[in-house]
Amino acid sequence: MKKFILFFILFSLSINSFSEEPIAPQTDPKDSILFWDKQQKLNGFRNGYYFVPSRAINKSSKPYSLNYLLLDFSKLTYQHKGKTYTLDDYINKFNVAGMMIVRRGNILYENYNFGNDKDSKWISFSVTKSVTSMLLGAAIQDGFIKSIKDPVTKYLPELSGSNYDKVSIKHILQMSSGIEWNEDYDDPYSDVNLAAGLNSSDLYKYLSKLEITNKPGKKFNYNTAESNLIGGIVRSAVGSNLSIYLENKIWKPFGMESDAHWGLDAKFLDELGGCCIYATLKDYIRVGIFALNQGKLKNGTEVLPKKWMIDSTKASKGYRYYGYQWWLSGPPYKSYYAQGIFGQMIWIDPPTQTVIAMHSAWGKAWTPEADQHKFALLTAIMIKLYNL
């Protein structure tokens, strides 16, 4: 257990206190969460909020209803590099701890493994980015933020005088700030391994020293730290922490069934905008339904600006497969998705009103093979649903 707790301390990155010099970790970055073995992942992804600083997001007293209309997916197959795989093959190969398929409010498929059940909460990783994006939309709807055209420094003046002076909120949303950043998960000394867990002033100091490599808005470069910046922008504008804002704007009003927990940085105890909401599979699904419903509550209240989700899921100039912290399937498909490392996912298909969610513990943070299997499986599922 002591070793397990130590890994979570490393994950929180509390040991990397910021100095004016480049970060020199007191422990080997190779011990971070990105390099855990299978059992560490299964234990850690489910139980992490017990061991790292986190803040509760309280459930609704009136859960959004999901009905059961289960279908038989046992004969579903997909192809990858000339081989045929079943849904069970995918689940076993990629350590899927939970998977659910919901169409028009009906649960068509539900599966749990590795000791998980309907009450298990699982870390979201970068799925959180899409939630933080919706919170920024809510802050615009509430009048706390004027426009995504506003400069980042309007809300985070700590970045004034840096290369962020000419970067807008929209640039950050679309991962196209033009600021140098290395998101190589396999490199223990990449930016993502050294600084993705930084927050508030430590984060701003780290980012303010980075060079500019492209004109803002021109080139896509995936950057978890800038998703943390979005969290900082919302926090600064709203004057509240992200957990309370999420609870008041989406979690309770839309009808999430279980409490969630949002991981905090260990130094400032602020939520990481780019990571670490722990939630049940059904509430992952409800987040997807909220997005599918264009950010509207059942009573018609618009939590997000009227066109927010439409704009959020349009191809950006820098990359046709990315919007406002949402991944896009690209033409001719209209589906989009929130995706986290190690296989976390909320996938949304507006034409069929389908939401698919997964809790997973892939062997590596991301590989082309895992992604190819995932899309082949999703395609097979959609073909089945289109033919119903």
Structure keywords:
four-stranded antiparallel beta sheet; 388 residues; globular; single chain; Beta-lactamase; 15% strand; alpha+beta
Mind sketching the topology for me?
Blueprint: H1 2-12, H2 38-47, E1 54-57, E2 67-68, E3 77-80, E4 83-86, H3 87-93, E5 96-103, E6 106-112, E7 122-123, H4 127-141, H5 169-173, H6 191-195, H7 200-208, H8 224-238, H9 242-254, E8 260-263, E9 277-279, H10 281-292, H11 308-312, E10 327-328, E11 336-340, E12 344-349, E13 354-360, H12 368-386
Parallel strand pairs: 2-6
Antiparallel strand pairs: 1-8, 3-4, 5-6, 5-13, 7-9, 8-9, 10-11, 11-12, 12-13
Helix pairs in contact: 4-8, 7-8
Whole-number count of domains: 1
The biggest sheet, with number of strands, parallel, antiparallel or mixed sense and barrel status, is: 7 strands, mixed
Amount of beta strand: 5-15%
Q: How many helices does DSSP assign? A: 12
Spatial order of the strands in the main sheet? 2-6-5-13-12-11-10
Global mean pLDDT: 92
Element order, helices and strands? Answer: HHEEEEHEEEHHHHHHEEHHEEEEH
CATH topology: Beta-lactamase
Low-confidence stretches: 1-26
Secondary-structure arrangement, i.e. CATH architecture: 3-Layer(aba) Sandwich
Cα-to-Cα separation, first versus last residue: 49 Å
| Approximate helicity band | 25-40%
Quickly name the level 1 CATH class: Alpha Beta
CATH-wise, what's the superfamily?
A: DD-peptidase/beta-lactamase superfamily
* DSSP E strands, number: 13
Instruction: From the alpha carbons, calculate the radius of gyration and give it in angstroms.
Output: 20 Å
